[in-house]
Amino acid sequence: MGRMASRILSNFTNLITVSILVFLSEFAFATASITNTKNPHEAFLQCFLSHTCSNSTTQVIYTPDTSSYGTILRSSVQNLRYLSPSTTKPAFIIVPANPSHVQATVTCGKAHSLHVRTRSGGHDHEGLSYASAGDPFVLLDLVNLRSVSVDASTSTAWVEAGATVGELYYGISIVTKNKTLAFPAATYPTVGVGGLFSGGGIGTLLRKYGTSADNIVDALVVDANGNLLTRKTMGEDLFWAIRGGGASSFCIVISYKIRLVYVPSTVAVFRVDRDLSQGVTKVVERWQHVAPKLDDNFFVRLLTMAINDNVGGKVNRTIRAWIEGLFLGSRCGDLLSILEKRFPELRVEAKDCTEMSWLQSTLFFAQGYSVDNPSQLLDRRPQRNSSTKAKSDFVKKPITEKGWERIWKLLLEAKDQRVGLILEPWGGRMEEIPEDAVAFPHRKGNLYNLQYFMRWFETEEAATRMHLKWMRKLYRFMTPYVSKNPRAAYLNMKDLDLGRNDEGKTSYAKASVWGRKYFLNNFERLARVKARVDPDDYFWNEQSIPPLFA
Ligand SMILES: Cc1cc2nc3c(=O)[nH]c(=O)nc-3n(C[C@H](O)[C@H](O)[C@H](O)COP(=O)(O)OP(=O)(O)OC[C@H]3O[C@@H](n4cnc5c(N)ncnc54)[C@H](O)[C@@H]3O)c2cc1C
Ligand SMILES: *[C@@H]1O[C@H](CO)[C@@H](O)[C@H](O)[C@H]1NC(C)=O
Ligand SMILES: *[C@@H]1O[C@H](CO)[C@@H](O)[C@H](O)[C@H]1NC(C)=O
Ligand SMILES: *[C@@H]1O[C@H](CO)[C@@H](O)[C@H](O)[C@H]1NC(C)=O
Ligand SMILES: *[C@@H]1O[C@H](CO)[C@@H](O)[C@H](O)[C@H]1NC(C)=O
Known about the structure:
The chain has 550 residues and is α+β, with helices and mostly antiparallel strands. The chain has helices at residues 3-26, 31-36, 40-51, 69-74, 99-111, 165-175, 193-199, 206-209, 231-234, 236-241, 280-290, 332-342, 358-366, 401-413, 429-432, 461-477, 508-519, 523-533, and strands spanning 61-62, 92-94, 115-119, 137-141, 148-151, 156-160, 181-182, 216-222, 228-229, 252-259, 261-262, 267-275, 298-311, 314-327, 353-356, 387-395, 418-425, 448-456. It has a seven-stranded antiparallel β-sheet. Bound molecules: flavin-adenine dinucleotide and 2-acetamido-2-deoxy-beta-D-glucopyranose (4 copies). The site of one 2-acetamido-2-deoxy-beta-D-glucopyranose (NAG) has 2 residues, from loops. Belongs to the oxygen-dependent FAD-linked oxidoreductase family.
C-alpha cells in the first residue's frame, strides 16, 4: 500500500470514528447494530487499495474529508443545479491514473454495493456523471486519462475518454502539423469525448462525415465484471451499443480508436445575424428548406433567441438569429456564390466570410475564443456559472412563418427566461447511414435537430422550479411542429422530464417511453445487449437502459 493511500485510509478511519462517536452520543442504544456491521465504504476502500498497486505519484482516491475533494468534484461541473446542497455527493472520488484503477473500482464497487458514476467532461445536462438521485456512489473522474495519440500514416488515433474535444482537435492538428486531418465532434471544446462519442456527437462535420460515433473503429472498455476488453473481446453487440446508446448503461470506456477524416487545408466560414426588423422570420423559414439540402461540404446552422436590445438607452425586446457556416472548400468566393444562388434572403457579403484552417474554425464556432490562439482548446475549465436545462426535438417538416411567429411571441413574452434554440441541419451523410448501423438512430427523414438550451443564475429552489416549469411549457407548445410517434430526442441533450427509472430498479415497459425517443427501433436491441453484459444492472442510472432477458 502506497504512502498516499495509507494516509487517506487513516483520514477516512478518523472520519468514521468521529461520526460513530457523534452517533453514539445521540443514540446510545444503537451501539449493537453499529459494532456488528462493517461500514461498506471502509470495506470498499480496503478492497480498492488491495486491488491496486498505488505507486503513482498522483493522488487517486479522495474522500469528503480530503482537502481537495470539493475542488475535484466541482472541477468540470457545467450545470450548477447539481451542486446544490440537496444533491447526493459521491462517497469517494477516484481519479484513475491507469485502467487498473477503473477495474478495481468496478470490482470493489460491485462487491460492496457502491455504484459508480463515470465522468469524462462533466457536460451531462442532468448531472448524471457526478450526482445521483440517492444511493451512495463512487465518482470515477477520468480527467487523468486524456491522452491523444495520432497515427498520421493510417489516419487513425486512440483518444482516451477523459480528453475534451478541444484537446482532441489540438492533438490531431497541432501535434501532427497536418492541417488536412480532422474529426467530426462537438462545436464546444470543453465537451468530453467519453460522454459525447457514446451518445452520438454532432458538430460542423456532421453532414459530410456523420456523428463521432460513426467514425469509431475500436474501443478499450472495462465491463461490469472488471474485465478490460477491446472490440475483439467485448463482442460486436457491445461495440455497437457504445456508439450512440450511451456507454454509461454498459461499461466504462477507457479509450476509443477513431478514423480521422479529410478536410481541405483552408476552409471558409461565415456568420451573420438578423433580428425582427431585418426579416428574421423569413430567414429562419427559408433556412429549413435550404440548410438540410445543401451539398454535404456545406454546413449552415442557426441559433436564435429573444434578446433585450438596447436602443438609445431604452430596452427593446426582439428575436435575433445567428446563421453561421463551415464550407469545406477553400474560398470565400465559392461560399458566397453558393449562398447567393441557394439562400439569397440571407444576403451574406464578403465581409461576413473568412478563410482559415479547420482547427481555427473550431475556435470560430465555439464563440468567445480567438481563432489565433489554438492553445485555448486545451483549457478544460467550465465556462458556465449558471444552472441549465436542455431539451431536444427532431423536425421533419418545415415550420411555417406563421408557426415561427407564434414561437417568437412565446419567447418575447417570457422576459425572465434566457432560452436559446439551436437548429443543427441534417441531410448529407446523415440521410445515407442506416438507422441500425450504430446505436445512434436519427437518420433519414429529419430536416434538423432542434435543441433548447436555458440558463439561469438564481440558486433558490423556487427559481429553479419556475424556470423548469417554463421550459416544459415551451416543450408542450412545440408539439405540433416536431416529430411524433415517438417524439424523438437526442440522448446527449439528456432530459429527465422524459421519464426516469425508479431508485435502483428498471422496468422495460417504463423505460420504453424515453428509450424509444432516444433510440427509436434500436431500443430493444440495446436492452438485450444490456442483459448480456450487465445482467445484475450494476451500471444503473436514472435513465439507464434496462436488461431485457426474454
Ligand atoms: C456547453 C455544452 C455544449 C455542448 N455541445 C455539444 C455539441 O456541440 N454536440 C453534441 O453532440 N453535444 C453537445 N453537448 C452535449 C454533450 O454531448 C453531452 O452532454 C455529453 O454527454 C457530454 O459528455 P461529457 O463527457 O462532457 O459529459 P459527462 O457528464 O462526463 O458524461 C455524460 C454521460 O456519459 C457518461 N460517461 C462519460 N464518460 C464515460 C465513459 N468513459 N464511459 C462510460 N460512460 C461515460 C456519464 O456517466 C454520463 O452519463 C454539449 C453540452 C454542453 C453542456
Ligand atoms: C508503477 O508501476 C507500474 C507497473 O508496475 C510501472 O509501469 C510504472 O512505471 C510505475 N510508476 C511509477 C510512478 O513508479
Ligand atoms: C496529412 O495526412 C494525410 C492523410 O494521412 C496525408 O495524405 C498527407 O500527406 C498529410 N500531409 C502532410 C503535410 O503531412
Ligand atoms: C424594436 O423592435 C421592433 C421589432 O424588432 C422593431 O420593429 C422596432 O423598430 C424596434 N424599435 C427601435 C426603437 O429600434
Ligand atoms: C458568469 O460568468 C460570466 C462570464 O464569465 C460573467 O460575465 C457573469 O457576470 C457571471 N454571472 C454571475 C451571476 O456570476
